Amino acid sequence: MSGRSHASHVVDQFGAQAAAYVASAVHAGGADLDRIAVLIRALPGAKVLDLGCGGHVAFAAATAGAAVTAYDLSAEMLAAVSAEAALRGLDNIETLQGAAEAMPFPDARFDAVLTRFSAHHWRDVPAALAEARRVLKPEGLLVACDVVAPEDPLLDTHLQAVELLRDPSHVRDYRLTEWRAMLKTAGFAPGAVLASRPRMEFASWIARMRTPPTQVAAIRALQASAAAEVTAHFQIESDGSFLLDSVLIEARPR
Q: Which ranges of the chain have pLDDT less than 70?
């Protein structure tokens, strides 16, 4: 037994791979980033928080004219974001280290809080959403993008199993119904949802997290023995590549 905290797992996983995430083609584009850019351009002079940053949201919001605070547990990730921002000539991004569940910002500090492909690593999503509500202006905007689990328990269980085998910092891919409930409890009114099904190319999906060979073998074994419904839903290919379910949820304070 390691006896190490969840936060340590997150920092270990993403610190070492920070540059790979900033450069990741899977994370660098998509309809969700396009939608974020549209929403931020509609908020001239906005102050934006990129919560659990991987860089791409910060770059999209900064390019759209916002003053961005990139906030993350990993100092290495923040350094990679700063370096890439400098290369892109974006001087409207600042970085700050910390946890999503305890933010060092005053109430009503931001016009928008954005998070993308980060929440499934958070120890306490309800607490983080409550903090997001606190630091957001009353007329502000929350945009949450993440992998979501299917509502079917059979499919949900398979997804969580392969995610945890791949990455020990994984907590949970929440179902869309769970997201809606958590947002409402935190004081938000969930709005429009943009769904997508990104393809995970197996070799690069594993490489991003430096998954050990024993866990890679276990993932492949789970895929090989999966029920027909699982194989069909995730469209599991012969090399292990598959489709994920992803959503962007827009929400406003109630």
A: 1-2, 4-29
Domains of the chain: 6-151+169-199+244-253 (3.40.50.150)
- For residues 172 and 165, the answer to whether their CB atoms sit within 8 Å is no
SS3 102: coil
Half-sphere exposure of residue 116: CA atoms within 13 angstroms, side-chain side? 28
How far apart (Å, rounded) are the C-alpha atoms in residues 2 and 178?
30
Determine the Cα–Cα distance for residues 225 and 123; give it in Å rounded to an integer.
30
Calculate the dihedral angle through the C-alpha atoms of 125, 62, 194, 202, rounding to the nearest 10 degrees. -80
pTM: predicted TM-score of the whole model, two decimal places: 0.89
Start-end of H helices in 46-191: 56-63, 75-87, 125-135, 153-166, 176-185
> What pLDDT sits at residue 182?
98
Q: Would you give the end-to-end CA distance of the chain in angstroms?
A: 44
Given CA atoms 105, 111, 116, 119 in this order, what sign does their dihedral have? positive
Are 199 and 124 within 8 A, CB to CB?
no
